[in-house]
Amino acid sequence: MRKLSYLAFTDAGEALAARLSRALGGTVSRAGEGGNTTLADWTAARFSEQGGALVYIGAAGIAVRAIAPHLKNKASDPAVVALDEQGRFVIPLLSGHLGGANELARAIARETRGSAVITTATDVRGVFAVDEWARKQNCAIRPCVGIKAVSKKLLRGETITLGSAFPIAGELPDNIMLTQEATADVTVSMYEGPGLRVIPRCLTLGAGCRRGISCAQLEECYVNFCRESGLAPEAFKSVSSIDLKAEEPGLLEFCEKHALPLVTFSAEALRAVPGSFSFSRFVLETTGVDNVCERAAVLASGGRLLIRKSRFEGVTFAAAIAEPRLSWRWRDV
Questions:
Q1: Domains of the chain (ranges plus CATH)?
Q2: Alpha-carbon span 323 to 168, nearest angstrom
Q3: Average pLDDT for residues 63-83, to the nearest whole number?
């Protein structure tokens, strides 16, 4: 769980937060008397971060009122958990599956020897949860409205169909039937398409750009690249380029906007990448290597080239794939 943050209100709560921090990681803050922050400020700051989880050690009502002004949607809201200062009851309040609040509540309950108070229907009845499975497999899932429809069918005891572009290891869960039909209830793929899509984060975006390129220009090219290739933007896990672009402001802003780490390599390292790549004499004379985007994508991904160089105004993009390792594991026992 990334960016795990605890907020306590009492001495006992702060002591429990410190104990959990040592066991599970994360930072501890104190609100109220003797505190170093306020409830409102702490909550606002945590909601502005990406991929975080908020743990309130105190009354659940305090947490509910604090988070209410910041709620946006199922896809982006962070995990929120509340527990009493003795750790007897651990309650996931928000983003139980997509944000991992249910899993976090179970982990905290194991540490405190308390009870995780899980209320989501699929968990209560032991039914496969497609959104929790997607998160466990490091996949994005959309549209969120499709999750509800799939879960309803499973809760009624009906069978859903699932198609996957990749093998999935392990034993198939109950009431799931594999199919190759395009009309599957759920499709696992890095490409756009109809129905509920589970999108593995398995692609690296190789990028070359002219000096001084703006984030807006890169964004326009990226939209066109994804549209032309059919790739879902959520499938990209990183951006790669030559080290000459390591401090390019527009590229850095673009990566920050999409929460994608930028990985760069020397011309020597790029030249050594085995394979057949597009050749550009201009790029060779400018950078010392005949191709940046394709070679950088392959080297950073550790996989194979999927989409060769696409040229745009001042920008080149390519995509490489590292085959995702998927399994039917969807919940920690």
A1: 4-119 (3.40.50.11220), 127-200 (3.40.1390.40), 203-321 (3.30.420.180)
A2: 11
A3: 90
